[in-house]
Design a protein that fits this description.
17 helices, 13% strand, 9 strands, de novo design (two linked rop proteins), Ubiquitin-like (UB roll), globular, alpha/beta, four-stranded parallel beta sheet, Rossmann fold
């Protein structure tokens, strides 16, 4: 078994029971180095690191910050997205429990870089303890002039507020998140314009995932050259993977993105039963099969947000496809006609699977719905929610055939 790399992002133990000590000993090295640089020098360092967003889209971070800096608007915002409402995703919670000041430090650096005066940390609705921890830290930072007016006596004003979102997966989508912060219903907007041009309150906005911001602090502290030594080209830096499902030791594993799925499974104690497949980047991601076990979990190979749900050969692919379809049917906003009607039809197809004459027309119709959503839905959530079921049909046709012709002993279904 390949040795597990020493953690960098998750090296700390949880800090809630030693919060004052943690605060007093936090060095703020990244912020000190950033304040000695110009905004353009900070962006150049981030670009040189090759850091891409860790929330799933993998957009180059330096380019995003640069775009906000170039906007003529006098008001800009910084938003840390910690909603992570997709099943099997909890890495941001771990980071906020172990090193929340790295996220806050990175937000201050972002604000200094683009001259923003206000920031928000947006949390999953269930993260009450984390909200309390952050509020305490922010209060101490204000007392020490590391937040607020004339921050660090640099004629630079910036403050951060914490908000917990509604109990909806959709509220983690960037434009829906902005609407929630503005006191509106958490529904997505069409793009363009993009958040870097018109985001929160229609002002240029940097919105980054919690893990992405944690990496920013590392880059400014240790340097872009150090960051590029971790992971392959176009997938630099440490990455957090949430591994769950039929696995002996589920949890968060920190590794570089040259790690394979086999590595993650071995580091997590091994699979329970015989490996059948894994949903990588969660139910909205891609399907890995036994032949993919040694494929590196890079950006190009679809590592996405780092969620890995492993399932063994006792799991029925139809059952998995139904769970995924039900989740996205329940969570979609229903705002646009293509999304609303396509998700309704996708659910009907899965609910009435046993009445289908064969798999081929089901695959064709599901594929048509997926293509329709890619081309005409208002946001990407519905189209990503209809990607996994066709992949399961393609990989495990026998599971679907059993449901159509006699029933499935695994699911207990019968025609």
């Amino acid at each position: 078994m390949k040795p597990l790399p020493a953690p960098v992002l998750t090296a700390n133990a949880p800090v809630a029971d030693r919060l004052r000590e943690y605060y007093l000993h936090y060095p703020f090295h990244a912020l000190q180095k950033a304040l000695a640089l110009s905004p353009h020098e900070i962006i150049a360092e981030l670009k040189a690191s090759g850091l891409r967003g860790r929330g799933g889209a993998a957009y180059p971070l330096g380019r995003k910050w640069e775009c906000v800096l170039q906007q003529p608007a006098p008001v800009r915002y910084i938003v840390a997205n910690g909603e992570e409402g997709e099943p099997g995703t909890f890495k941001d919670r771990v980071l906020l429990e172990r090193n929340p000041l790295a996220v806050i430090e990175a937000m201050i650096i972002a604000a200094y870089t683009v001259r923003a005066r206000a920031g928000y940390i947006y949390l999953n609705h269930s993260y009450r303890q984390i909200e309390q921890t952050l509020q305490t830290l922010l209060a101490w930072l204000r007392e020490d002039q590391r937040l607020g007016n004339n921050l660090l006596k640099r004629q630079f004003d910036f403050d951060i507020q914490v908000r917990r979102g509604p109990s909806r997966y959709l509220s983690g989508e960037e434009t829906a998140l902005f609407h929630a912060l503005e006191g509106r219903r958490a529904e997505p907007s069409s793009r363009p314009p993009y958040p870097t041009e018109q985001g929160l309150w229609r002002k240029p906005t940097i919105i980054n995932n919690i893990e992405t911001l944690s990496c920013v602090a590392l880059i400014l502290e240790k340097g872009s050259k150090w960051f590029t030594t971790l992971g392959p080209v176009n997938s630099h830096g440490p990455k957090l993977f949430c591994i769950t499902g039929d696995i002996k030791n589920p949890g968060v594993i920190e590794a570089a993105m040259d790690a394979s799925l086999r590595d993650l499974i071995e580091w997590a104690g091994g699979a329970i039963g015989d490996f059948k497949g894994a949903m990588v980047s969660g139910p909205s991601g891609c399907l890995f099969l036994p032949d993919d076990l040694d494929k590196p979990l890079t950006v190009q190979n679809g590592c996405g947000n780092g969620t890995v749900v492993v399932f063994n050969d006792t799991r029925c692919a139809v059952d998995l496809a139904r769970h995924v379809t039900d989740f996205f049917f329940t969570e979609h906003c229903g705002q646009c006609l293509p999304g609303r009607e396509s998700m309704k039809q996708a659910k009907s197809l899965m609910d009435n699977l046993e009445h289908q004459p064969s798999l081929a027309p089901l695959q064709q119709r599901y594929g048509e719905l997926h293509t329709l959503l890619l081309n005409s839905s208002k946001c990407g959530l519905c189209s990503s929610g209809t990607a996994m079921a066709p992949a399961l049909m393609q990989a495990f046709p026998a599971d679907f055939d059993r449901h159509m012709h006699g029933g499935c002993a695994v699911c207990g279904s019968a025609v």
